[in-house]
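During the reporting period the student researcher (J.K.) took over the structure-prediction task from the postdoctoral fellow and processed the backlog of single-chain submissions. One of the processed entries is reproduced below for the supervisory committee.
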Amino acid sequence: MSACALTDRRIISYCGFYCGGCLKLLNGVCSGCVTNDAITGCEVKDCCEIHAYPSCASCQDVTNITQCVKLQRCIENRVCGGCLSC
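J.K. obtained the following structure tokens:
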């Protein structure tokens, strides 16, 4: 793995999904939700941006990340709203 891959923030989405193996990101079709302002409709992305969290792991609003309804909806759907639009 290259040093760039280790430091490239795009490979981890706000919800924690690993995008580094995503063909859309690797082929330049999608830049990842963290750097793509055109991606809308993802409540996890919106929440992280409002609170200035790099990801849900930084959340101070819940003591257990499994208590987050927004993140749970994202996980249950297996894709976030942003991923659907890229």
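The committee noted the following: The mean pLDDT is 78.
J.K. will present the remaining backlog at the next meeting.
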